[in-house]
Design brief:
Helix content: 40-55%
CATH class: Alpha Beta
CATH topology: Spore Coat Polysaccharide Biosynthesis Protein SpsA, Chain A
Oligomer: single chain
Strand content: 15-25%
Largest sheet: 5 strands, mixed
Order of helices and strands: EHEHEHEEHEHEHHEHHH
Number of domains: 1
CATH architecture: Alpha-Beta Complex
CATH superfamily: Spore Coat Polysaccharide Biosynthesis Protein SpsA, Chain A
Strand order of the largest sheet: 3-2-1-4-7
Shape: globular
Radius of gyration: 17 Å
Structural class: alpha/beta
């Protein structure tokens, strides 16, 4: 019987055909391919076909990143999990940096995230990247588009992703705590389409408003309704 993979890569999707192929292609240098799990929330485009063509294992879960990420972790067999958004590709050198991190046994109780980069050359994109870097450093609150590398042991010990409607990334970062989050130099190059569509100023402001609502205790379902307006 083959040994389980060291790393399981978990990618939640929902009508992600426009970006998924680029995401999975960037993972091609990591083997084995069957360690990639695409967790779909009910896509109506060619997302599932693209995932299968790239050798990923495909499962379905109730729509919502929290639910999908939790389902992916439950299906994963690796000793380490890498949670990666479908509109993100990891920059060159990520495997070397990740492997060095994993090889240090002290890091079994530390998670890691990547440095956010947007695929847009405008100065406003650099502003968003600065906000992300500052929030991660000062508040220890990386968002999901920075990806998350975490050992199975640590993931299970903090209760994993919760099936909540929004802020699943903030929720798990809070339970990890500042002392258990490491930031890689390698970048998570993420599509800036959401910012181009909603505004490089207004989208971060909306995110900040939702984060504030989270911290004052509003239910995630209510925050999700506000966020999706």
């Amino acid at each position: 019987m083959p040994n389980p993979p060291l790393l399981s890569i978990i990618v939640p999707t929902l009508n992600a055909a426009a970006t998924l192929e680029t995401c999975l292609t960037a993972l091609a240098e990591y083997k084995p391919a069957q360690a990639v799990i695409v967790v779909d929330g009910g896509s109506s485009d060619s997302t599932l076909q693209i995932a299968v063509q790239h050798g990923a294992t495909v499962i379905t879960a109730p729509r919502g990143r929290g639910s999908q990420l939790a389902a992916g972790a439950n299906a994963a067999t690796g000793d380490w999990f890498l949670f990666l958004h479908a509109d993100t590709q990891l920059s060159q050198g990520w495997i070397c940096e990740m492997n060095t991190f994993i090889a240090d046994t002290r890091n079994s109780h530390t998670a890691a995230v990547f440095t956010l980069a947007l695929d847009d050359e405008r100065l406003s994109a650099r502003w968003v990247e600065w906000i992300s870097a500052t929030r991660t450093k000062v508040l220890a609150l990386p968002y999901g588009d920075q990806s998350l590398l975490i050992s199975r042991e640590l993931y299970n010990s903090i209760g994993g992703f919760r099936p909540i409607a929004i802020m699943e990334d903030v929720d798990i970062a809070r339970r990890l705590g500042r002392q258990h989050i490491h930031v890689f130099n390698s970048c998570a190059l993420t599509s800036a389409e959401r910012y181009r569509r909603h505004g490089f100023f207004w989208r971060p402001l909306r995110n900040l408003c939702c984060l504030t609502l989270w911290f004052i205790g509003l239910p995630p379902d209510l925050i999700a309704r506000i966020y999706n307006r």
